[in-house]
Design goal:
With 434 residues, the protein is an alpha/beta fold. The protein contains eleven helices and 20 strands.
C-alpha cells in the first residue's frame, strides 16, 4: 500500500492547522477534530482497498511476431469486486520492445470487464517472454494505491521481418510491380526445363527449332525453356563477431536474414531446394529441401540466430559444408570480411569452387562509408580519410581476386543486400550457370 498525492495534501492541511493553533489556541479543537476525522477516513479507505479482490487479466497475443513491424496486443481485465474499480494497467513486455498505449487507466464497473488494446514493435529477434501484468488499484477515495503483479507468463518468438518473405513470394508469382526491384523472366536458351512450343522469333538459336513441329505446322516452331528446377541453394551464414555491427537501425545479421528469406522464397517458388548452414560460434545445419515446408523449416532454424563474440573461420565452414553437400549447388556465403579474413576467404572459395558455384556477399559498415564522406579539416581528418581509402582499395583488390577465381562477389551495404542478392540469384538462373 502506498499513499497517493491526495493523501499527502490532506496531511499538509492538517499540519497547517497545527501551525495556526500554535499562534491561535482557539484552533486547537479544530486540529483535533480534523485529525480524528482524517484518521477514520484514511483507515477506512485503506481497509476497503485491502479487502478488494484483485481483477483477473487475460492477454491476447500472436504466437509469432515480426521484427520491426507493429502488432496489436489485447488485455481483457475482469473485476470480481462489487464496487467500481479504478486501476492502472501495464503489461510486462520485453524491455527492448517499442510500445504505444501503456500504461493505461481503466474504470471497471462492479463485476464488469474492460478491454485494453496497445501496440508494440519488436526490435530484436529470438524467443521472448511476457512475464506478467502490473496492476495499480486505487482506493474508493483515491487516498491509497495498491500494486499487484499478476504472473501471466507467455513465450513468443520474434522472427525476421516477414515483409521480406512476402515480397519474395510476390516476386516468384511475377506480380506486375515488385518492391524489391527484380523480375524473373523466361529463358530463350536451350538449357533448362522445357516450357512450351511457340512460333519462331528473330534471335532464336538454330538448335532451338523443333523440326518435327515445324514440318507439321509448315512454319518455323521453336522450343521455349525456363530456368532449370530441382537445383540446390545453400546459405553459408557468418554469425561471428564481425556481424555484430549495427547500422541503419539494424544489425548486419538482421539484414542477412532478411535477404536470406527473400531469396529462399524465390528459390522455393521456382522449385529449388533451399538449405542453411551457420558458423562462427553458432553452428546449425538445415539440409536442402523443396516446397513451402522447407521454407517454414528454414525460418524455424534461423529466426533466433544472434551474432557471437567468436572469430568466424570460413575455411573450416567451407570444409564442413563440402562434406555435407553431395550435389552441385549455389552456395551463398554472407559475411562481413576484414583484412585478417582475406586468406581464409580465398581458401574457402578455392575449396567450394571445385564442385559448387559460390556467391559471396561481403557487407560493408555504414559508419565507415559515412566517415569516408566527411569533410577534411585538419591532420586527424586527413589521416582518417587516407586510412579509409586504403581500406576500400584493399577490399576492391580482394573482390577482384575472388572474381578471377570464378566467384560471384557482391560488395555492398546491408540495406542493399536483399534486392542485390535476389537480382544476382535470378541472373544466375537465367544464365544456366548451375
Amino acid at each position: 500500500m502506498r499513499p497517493t498525492p491526495a493523501l499527502s495534501w490532506l496531511f499538509v492541511g492538517w499540519t497547517l492547522i497545527a501551525l495556526v493553533a500554535v499562534w491561535w489556541p482557539a484552533a486547537g479543537p479544530l486540529w483535533w477534530g480534523y485529525g480524528g476525522l482524517l484518521a477514520v477516513v484514511v483507515l477506512g479507505d485503506v481497509l476497503v482497498l485491502w479487502r478488494t479482490p484483485v481483477p483477473e487479466v487475460e492477454r491476447t497475443l500472436p504466437g509469432t511476431l515480426s521484427q520491426g513491424e507493429w502488432c496489436a496486443v489485447g488485455l481483457v481485465v475482469r473485476s470480481t469486486a462489487r464496487r467500481r474499480l479504478r486501476l492502472l494497467v501495464h503489461d510486462l513486455h520485453p524491455a527492448t520492445f517499442e510500445v504505444a498505449g501503456l500504461p493505461a487507466s481503466l474504470l471497471l464497473s462492479p463485476l464488469g470487464e474492460a478491454r485494453l488494446d496497445y501496440r508494440l514493435r519488436p526490435v530484436t529477434r529470438g524467443d521472448v517472454v511476457f512475464a506478467g501484468v502490473d496492476l495499480a488499484l486505487y482506493s474508493p477515495l483515491g487516498l491509497w494505491r495498491r500494486r499487484q503483479r499478476l504472473v501471466l507468463p507467455e513465450r513468443v518468438r520474434v522472427v525476421p521481418a516477414l515483409a521480406a518473405l512476402r515480397r519474395g513470394v510476390a516476386l516468384a508469382a511475377q506480380d506486375a510491380r515488385l518492391g524489391a526491384g527484380v523480375h524473373p523472366h523466361q529463358r530463350r536458351g536451350s538449357d533448362g526445363d522445357f516450357h512450351q512450343l511457340r512460333d519462331y522469333r528473330a534471335g532464336d538459336l538454330l538448335r532451338q527449332i523443333d523440326w518435327k513441329a515445324s514440318a507439321r505446322a509448315r512454319r518455323p516452331i521453336s522450343r521455349e525453356y525456363r530456368e532449370s528446377r530441382d537445383q540446390q541453394l545453400v546459405f553459408l551464414l557468418d554469425c561471428g563477431r564481425h556481424m555484430r555491427h549495427l547500422g541503419d537501425g539494424a544489425g548486419h545479421l538482421d539484414a542477412a536474414l532478411a535477404a536470406l528469406l527473400l531469396v529462399a522464397g524465390l528459390a522455393v517458388r521456382q522449385g529449388d531446394a533451399v538449405g542453411l548452414m551457420s558458423y562462427g560460434g553458432t553452428s546449425r545445419w538445415c539440409p536442402p529441401r523443396q516446397g513451402q515446408p522447407a521454407l517454414r523449416r528454414l525460418l524455424d532454424d534461423c529466426y533466433d540466430l544472434q551474432p557471437t563474440l567468436e572469430a568466424a573461420d570460413p575455411l573450416l565452414a567451407a570444409a564442413t559444408l563440402q562434406q555435407r553437400l553431395r550435389r552441385r549447388a549455389l552456395v551463398v556465403l554472407i559475411t562481413c570480411g576484414r583484412d585478417e579474413d582475406q586468406e581464409g576467404l580465398e581458401q574457402a572459395a578455392r575449396l567450394l569452387g571445385r564442385d559448387h558455384l559460390l556467391l559471396l556477399a561481403d557487407l560493408r559498415e555504414r559508419s565507415l562509408e559515412d566517415a569516408l564522406n566527411q569533410p577534411v579539416r585538419d591532420l586527424s581528418d586527413a589521416l582518417r580519410f587516407h586510412a579509409l581509402r586504403d581500406w576500400r582499395e584493399r577490399r576492391r583488390v580482394r573482390c577482384a581476386r575472388l572474381r578471377r577465381r570464378g566467384v560471384q562477389v557482391l560488395d555492398l551495404l546491408p540495406a542493399q543486400l536483399p534486392s542485390a542478392l535476389a537480382d544476382r540469384y535470378l541472373a544466375i538462373k537465367r544464365a544456366g550457370m548451375l
